[in-house]
Amino acid sequence: MAQVDFQHREIAIKLVYYGPAMSGKTTNLQQIHARMDPRRRGKLLTLDTKEDRTLYFDLLPLAFKSVSGITCKVKLFTVPGQVIHNTTRKVVLQGCDGVAFIADSQIAETKNNNESFANLRQNLKENRLDVEGIPIVIQFNKRDLAKVRSDDEIKRIAQKGKEPIFPAVAFKGEGVVDTFLGLAAATWESLETRMGLGSKHGIPRAELLGALSKQLGTDVSTIKLEGIR
Asked: CA nearest 18: which of 119, 142, 110?
């Protein structure tokens, strides 16, 4: 659950980008970071190794002060995709409030996507997080490549599952903001139910999404948040 610091009137929301190796998790955070006003954005920390592009995590903090005077910090993390780093993925996932699962649209990556999603559910369970209740959105990245799942197939996947789905070409920035704001909206709904993020702590949904979209130089009203109230 979001961390509340009553003394300093701060609330920190933790969002994690999860998915198989090289699916575009880090690229999503890089695109978000690049869109922000340089005078207001935090540092994007990346730890690269020969074995995996991001061994530990990327951390991108965004913050704003609500009209109620409470500072809201949204921290974005990614996890390493390679199977050998499962312990690290589990640690990064601890205490998260919402997850963006970044899937690779290529048909050849279907097995890796499925295994990574199953791993996500297992690690949520082992972290004692509500597997069925935690907000999850799915991004199907790399829509520009050949031999990818068709649009109709992705629509069928969306109809079968409860998770909102966003198509993307992350390295071009396409679908990145939609995915992020979709996750933020779903997370707000969850936190409102669980702890009264708006009703008790003074951070209404419209203010959260408006502040985040403004920092990213976009208008939240232009974002399609299908499946999210």
From this structure: 119
DSSP secondary structure of 145-171: SSSB--HHHHHHHHHHSSS-EEE-BGG
Tokens standing for 47? 């730890």
Token duo for residue 151: 């649009």
For the domain 3-222, what is the CATH superfamily, name and number?
P-loop containing nucleotide triphosphate hydrolases (3.40.50.300)
Q: From residue 12, give the alpha-carbon distance in Å to each of 33, 70, 72, 184, 215.
A: 18, 11, 6, 13, 17
Q: Residues near 125 by Cβ (< 8 Å), separated by ≥ 6?
A: 131
Give the integer Cα–Cα distance in Å for 44 and 135.
Answer: 24
Cβ atoms of 149 and 107 closer than 8 Å: yes
The Cα–Cα gap between 91 and 80 comes to 11
Could you tell me the residue ranges of all domains in the chain? 3-222
Residues 157 and 181: beta-carbon distance below 8 Å: no
Q: Give the pLDDT confidence of 36-55 residue by residue, as tens digits.
A: 877 767 777 766 655 555 44
pLDDT tens digits, one per residue of 132-168: 999 999 999 999 999 999 999 999 988 888 899 999 9
Residue 73 in tokens:
């910090």
